[in-house]
Backbone:
Protein backbone atom coordinates (compact mmCIF):
# COMPACT_ATOMS: atom_id res chain seq x y z
CA UNK A 1 0.00 0.00 0.00
CA UNK A 2 2.82 2.38 0.90
CA UNK A 3 6.22 2.05 -0.78
CA UNK A 4 8.00 4.73 1.19
CA UNK A 5 7.37 7.92 3.17
CA UNK A 6 9.59 11.00 3.18
CA UNK A 7 9.56 13.32 6.16
CA UNK A 8 11.33 14.54 9.27
CA UNK A 9 12.16 12.18 12.12
CA UNK A 10 10.81 13.96 15.20
CA UNK A 11 11.11 11.17 17.75
CA UNK A 12 13.35 8.15 18.23
CA UNK A 13 12.61 5.46 20.83
CA UNK A 14 14.03 1.96 21.40
CA UNK A 15 11.16 0.43 19.39
CA UNK A 16 9.97 2.99 16.85
CA UNK A 17 10.45 6.36 15.22
CA UNK A 18 7.94 9.13 14.52
CA UNK A 19 8.16 10.47 10.98
CA UNK A 20 6.29 13.74 10.39
CA UNK A 21 4.99 14.26 6.89
CA UNK A 22 2.48 17.00 5.93
CA UNK A 23 1.45 17.50 9.54
CA UNK A 24 0.93 13.79 10.24
CA UNK A 25 3.21 11.91 12.62
CA UNK A 26 3.64 8.33 11.44
CA UNK A 27 4.57 5.86 14.18
CA UNK A 28 6.91 3.44 12.43
CA UNK A 29 8.46 0.36 14.02
CA UNK A 30 11.98 -0.30 12.74
CA UNK A 31 14.71 -2.91 13.32
CA UNK A 32 17.06 -0.29 14.78
CA UNK A 33 15.42 3.08 15.42
CA UNK A 34 18.76 4.66 16.34
CA UNK A 35 19.96 4.24 12.77
CA UNK A 36 17.64 7.16 12.02
CA UNK A 37 18.64 10.66 13.11
CA UNK A 38 16.31 13.11 14.81
CA UNK A 39 16.86 16.02 12.46
CA UNK A 40 15.11 18.63 10.34
CA UNK A 41 16.46 16.98 7.21
CA UNK A 42 14.04 15.01 5.05
CA UNK A 43 14.58 11.26 5.33
CA UNK A 44 13.15 8.41 3.28
CA UNK A 45 11.76 5.35 5.03
CA UNK A 46 10.74 2.26 3.07
CA UNK A 47 7.53 0.97 4.62
CA UNK A 48 5.47 -2.16 5.01
CA UNK A 49 1.94 -2.19 6.40
CA UNK A 50 1.21 -5.34 8.37
CA UNK A 51 -2.49 -6.04 8.90
CA UNK A 52 -3.73 -9.08 10.78
CA UNK A 53 -7.11 -9.36 12.48
CA UNK A 54 -7.22 -6.37 14.88
CA UNK A 55 -3.52 -5.46 14.54
CA UNK A 56 -2.14 -2.86 12.18
CA UNK A 57 1.57 -2.11 12.25
CA UNK A 58 3.51 0.28 10.04
CA UNK A 59 7.08 -0.96 9.73
CA UNK A 60 9.98 1.02 8.29
CA UNK A 61 13.41 0.25 6.87
CA UNK A 62 16.53 2.21 5.88
CA UNK A 63 16.95 0.32 2.61
CA UNK A 64 14.78 -1.43 0.07
CA UNK A 65 16.85 -4.63 0.43
CA UNK A 66 16.21 -4.68 4.16
CA UNK A 67 12.47 -4.43 3.62
CA UNK A 68 12.44 -7.15 0.99
CA UNK A 69 14.35 -9.52 3.29
CA UNK A 70 11.81 -8.75 6.03
CA UNK A 71 8.97 -9.71 3.67
CA UNK A 72 10.72 -13.02 2.94
CA UNK A 73 11.34 -13.75 6.63
CA UNK A 74 7.69 -13.35 7.67
CA UNK A 75 6.68 -16.02 5.17
CA UNK A 76 8.58 -18.57 7.28
CA UNK A 77 6.45 -20.52 9.75
CA UNK A 78 7.34 -19.42 13.27
CA UNK A 79 8.60 -15.94 12.35
CA UNK A 80 6.25 -13.01 12.83
CA UNK A 81 6.86 -9.29 12.22
CA UNK A 82 8.53 -8.70 15.59
CA UNK A 83 10.72 -11.77 15.16
CA UNK A 84 11.78 -10.62 11.69
CA UNK A 85 12.57 -7.14 13.05
CA UNK A 86 14.72 -8.72 15.77
CA UNK A 87 16.68 -10.70 13.17
CA UNK A 88 17.27 -7.58 11.07
CA UNK A 89 18.24 -5.58 14.17
CA UNK A 90 20.80 -8.19 15.22
CA UNK A 91 22.32 -9.16 11.89
CA UNK A 92 23.62 -7.78 8.63
CA UNK A 93 21.10 -8.75 5.91
CA UNK A 94 23.72 -10.13 3.53
CA UNK A 95 25.18 -12.23 6.37
CA UNK A 96 21.73 -13.63 7.16
CA UNK A 97 21.24 -14.59 3.51
CA UNK A 98 24.72 -16.11 3.38
CA UNK A 99 23.96 -18.28 6.42
CA UNK A 100 20.72 -19.50 4.84
CA UNK A 101 22.43 -20.31 1.55
CA UNK A 102 25.13 -22.41 3.20
CA UNK A 103 22.63 -23.99 5.64
CA UNK A 104 24.44 -22.63 8.68
CA UNK A 105 21.97 -23.44 11.47
CA UNK A 106 24.55 -22.62 14.16
CA UNK A 107 24.68 -19.03 12.93
CA UNK A 108 20.91 -18.63 12.58
CA UNK A 109 20.05 -19.88 16.09
CA UNK A 110 22.01 -16.95 17.53
CA UNK A 111 19.14 -14.63 16.60
CA UNK A 112 16.50 -13.82 19.26
CA UNK A 113 13.59 -16.27 19.11
CA UNK A 114 15.20 -18.55 16.52
CA UNK A 115 15.61 -22.15 17.65
CA UNK A 116 16.83 -25.13 15.67
CA UNK A 117 13.37 -25.85 14.25
CA UNK A 118 12.89 -22.29 13.02
CA UNK A 119 16.44 -22.14 11.63
CA UNK A 120 15.81 -25.31 9.65
CA UNK A 121 12.50 -23.90 8.39
CA UNK A 122 14.25 -20.70 7.27
CA UNK A 123 16.68 -22.77 5.23
CA UNK A 124 13.96 -24.98 3.72
CA UNK A 125 11.72 -22.04 2.79
CA UNK A 126 14.26 -19.43 1.67
CA UNK A 127 17.38 -21.13 0.32
CA UNK A 128 17.85 -20.24 -3.34
CA UNK A 129 15.16 -17.53 -3.21
CA UNK A 130 17.18 -14.59 -1.90
CA UNK A 131 19.88 -13.99 -4.51
CA UNK A 132 17.86 -11.24 -6.12
CA UNK A 133 18.08 -9.15 -2.93
CA UNK A 134 21.85 -8.69 -3.01
CA UNK A 135 24.39 -8.79 -5.80
CA UNK A 136 26.98 -9.98 -3.29
CA UNK A 137 26.24 -12.36 -0.44
CA UNK A 138 28.57 -12.35 2.56
CA UNK A 139 29.24 -15.80 3.92
CA UNK A 140 29.87 -15.83 7.68
CA UNK A 141 33.14 -17.51 8.51
CA UNK A 142 33.56 -19.91 11.41
CA UNK A 143 34.82 -17.19 13.74
CA UNK A 144 31.97 -14.80 12.99
CA UNK A 145 29.23 -14.41 15.58
CA UNK A 146 26.47 -11.97 16.39
CA UNK A 147 28.33 -11.12 19.58
CA UNK A 148 31.45 -9.90 17.78
CA UNK A 149 29.31 -8.02 15.28
CA UNK A 150 27.32 -6.36 18.07
CA UNK A 151 30.52 -5.41 19.90
CA UNK A 152 31.98 -3.82 16.76
CA UNK A 153 28.84 -1.73 16.26
CA UNK A 154 28.02 -0.99 19.90
CA UNK A 155 29.89 2.31 20.05
CA UNK A 156 28.30 3.58 16.84
CA UNK A 157 24.84 2.58 18.11
CA UNK A 158 25.51 4.42 21.37
CA UNK A 159 26.52 7.57 19.48
CA UNK A 160 23.34 7.39 17.39
CA UNK A 161 21.25 6.93 20.53
CA UNK A 162 22.84 9.96 22.18
CA UNK A 163 22.19 12.04 19.06
CA UNK A 164 18.56 10.98 19.31
CA UNK A 165 18.55 12.24 22.89
CA UNK A 166 19.58 15.67 21.66
CA UNK A 167 23.37 15.77 22.05
CA UNK A 168 25.15 17.56 19.22
CA UNK A 169 27.72 15.97 16.94
CA UNK A 170 30.26 18.46 18.27
CA UNK A 171 29.75 17.25 21.84
CA UNK A 172 29.89 13.60 20.84
CA UNK A 173 32.98 14.06 18.69
CA UNK A 174 34.83 15.31 21.78
CA UNK A 175 34.00 12.28 23.93
CA UNK A 176 34.21 9.55 21.27
CA UNK A 177 38.03 9.21 21.40
CA UNK A 178 37.82 8.59 25.15
CA UNK A 179 35.17 5.92 24.61
CA UNK A 180 37.34 4.20 22.00
CA UNK A 181 40.09 3.83 24.62
CA UNK A 182 37.82 1.76 26.87
CA UNK A 183 37.54 -2.00 26.86
CA UNK A 184 34.77 -3.16 24.52
CA UNK A 185 31.33 -2.59 26.03
CA UNK A 186 27.77 -3.12 24.87
CA UNK A 187 25.67 -0.20 23.63
CA UNK A 188 24.22 0.56 27.06
CA UNK A 189 27.69 0.50 28.62
CA UNK A 190 29.05 3.01 26.11
CA UNK A 191 26.01 5.25 26.67
CA UNK A 192 26.54 5.29 30.44
CA UNK A 193 30.23 6.16 30.06
CA UNK A 194 29.44 8.82 27.46
CA UNK A 195 26.82 10.44 29.69
CA UNK A 196 29.30 10.55 32.57
CA UNK A 197 31.77 12.38 30.34
CA UNK A 198 29.15 14.72 28.88
CA UNK A 199 27.72 15.67 32.27
CA UNK A 200 31.16 16.66 33.55
CA UNK A 201 31.38 19.44 31.00
Residues:
Amino acid sequence: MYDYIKGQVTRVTPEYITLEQSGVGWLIMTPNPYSFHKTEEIQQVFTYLHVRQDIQLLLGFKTLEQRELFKKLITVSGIGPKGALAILASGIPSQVIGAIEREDEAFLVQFPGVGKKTARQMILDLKGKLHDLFSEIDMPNDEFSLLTMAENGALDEAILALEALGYSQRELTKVKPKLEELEELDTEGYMKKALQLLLRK
